[in-house]
User: Fold this.
Amino acid sequence: MCGIIGYVGKQKAAPFILEGLKRLEYRGYDSAGVAIFQNGSFSVLKKIGRVANLELEVAKVNLGGTYGIGHTRWATHGGVTDFNAHPHLSSDGKFALIHNGVIENYASMKKYLLGKEYTFASETDSEALCNLIAYHYAKEPVTPQQNRFLTSVRKALLHAEGTYGIVVMCLDHPGEMVAARKGSPLILGLGDGENIIASDVSAIIARTQSVVYLNDGEIVYCTAKEFQITTLALEAVSPTVAKVTWNVADAEKGAYAHFMEKEIFEQPLALENTMRGRFSGDASTANFGGLNTTPIEFRGIERFMFCACGTALHACMVTEHLIEQYARTPVECDYASEFRYRNAPLFRNTLFFVMSQSGETIDTLAALREAKRKGYKVLAINNVVGSSIAREADGGIYQHVGPEIGVASTKAFTSQLLIGAMLALYIGRMRDMSFGEGVRYVTALKSAPNLVRKALEQAPHIREIAKRYAHHADMLFLGRMSLFPIALEGALKLKEISYIHAEGYPAAEMKHGPIALISEHCPSVFFAPRGEILNKIISSMQEIKARKGPVIAIITEGVELPEGLADELIVIPDCHDAVLPIVASIPVQLLSYYIAIERGCDVDKPRNLAKSVTVE
Ligand code: G6P
Assistant:
């Protein structure tokens, strides 16, 4: 959470930083601020609310400097106020700092610094670090070979506990920037006569596609023309310069009203990109280039463990279902945030997977580290190339769906479902799945983009339904088997972007509690695909109907429901079981999207949320 960007170069810093902040806004949007060095001092502007508010303030003044930093905040320590917005200045005015993360020992730092006559203008943990840098700068002797600015940042960080991605400027060192990371993402973009430091690639892509992904424990010093990276322990680091494969247009809305809408309608293409080149020549199984795991190793695995957060966890739950069904191997799923602390006993021959769109979710990263610490191999399913999770995993599968910017995950989710289905095939073919079954499975997966296109054609119909249900305060999502996690996801989507209270349940479980909520004011969205338990699902619908609950039924083509049972019907194409969760996700994404629009909600930036949760 929080987006940070620092620029040093030959162009005006403020417009570029504001543009970058808008691209980083999905990381947090409680407040935003910039500090630009000009005429020998820092001009600092901070404003609560969106970057657009800050932009209005910036337009009132002339910010001409070519060296500056900016921040968009997701509040942790201290309320949403202009004072608590970043950048923070040290009380001697020498340093300006932006920070993403949490300095856990800030209270003791602050107490110590108050005793040394440093003062504080905010309630944030970040300001304590900024003053600590100033303290070291004022106090510590340096050798002629040492850069005093860099040394003071490094010394302060040696006392910092918690997580940080920071960028710092110093009045005495114009044109020099120091940045460091521990637990919060940070990249260095290498431009032509300019260098940029940012939380992620989206902020810099307009200027350069050459990036260095910084690692935890590294500190970078840069000017417009050069950069050096070392560890905090002063070991030299030889940087690897990577090329970003997507461009500015991928990170823009184009003709769509919202990123979420764009990303929903991009799904056929996203699925094609996820699958591309990943089937065997005989089209009977999947191939993954980066698993770093031999078939012999896979064959010896007795259990798979999946950890993730939020939407990605729902994708893991569907994957569990498919691997157990098609590869007949036990799978366990857990919230990454729980797994990291619950000290779970694990079977010896367990292969560990983490799933994360951003690759930066701190709990998922911590689960990965915990599994590795216990000696397990960990593979990652992840969208963002070069992310922390991708780099720390022993191997993995990239999703290749391009940047996902809407806070509510859509195309990344269906891509994760597809990878889960491909994994089930891959493992299944190593076990009991026949060649013929594999070929049918591959054919089905290849049809997924077209089936999704067909499901998307329901958009105008779903929009009409949304108009009729947008005023409700509660909603249930009910599904069974592999569609139970899609019910959870449907409820999560609705909650996230429309603030309607929603719950997902296995349809039959509804009578053990949630049925108490049913009335004409609480609609239920049912998944009722063809299959052997359709009649059981119909019985659950009858139970809702008998209590006057409105029913929105999502059925596959060919399913016939008893007359009058469903108040609303959404028909999706019938398909292979491995593809069904993908296709069934489309109507619930559209329903939440259109309901949120009806309610006038800010779809891409729902209140209190952030896309990439890099604090615990
Ligand atoms: C946040 C986002 C969710 C996302 C979750 C996990 O809570 O708002 O949309 O599913 O993080 O994110 P990840 O990047 O790890 O998939």
Remarks:
- The radius of gyration is 26 Å.
- The chain has three domains: 3-248, 253-446, 456-602.
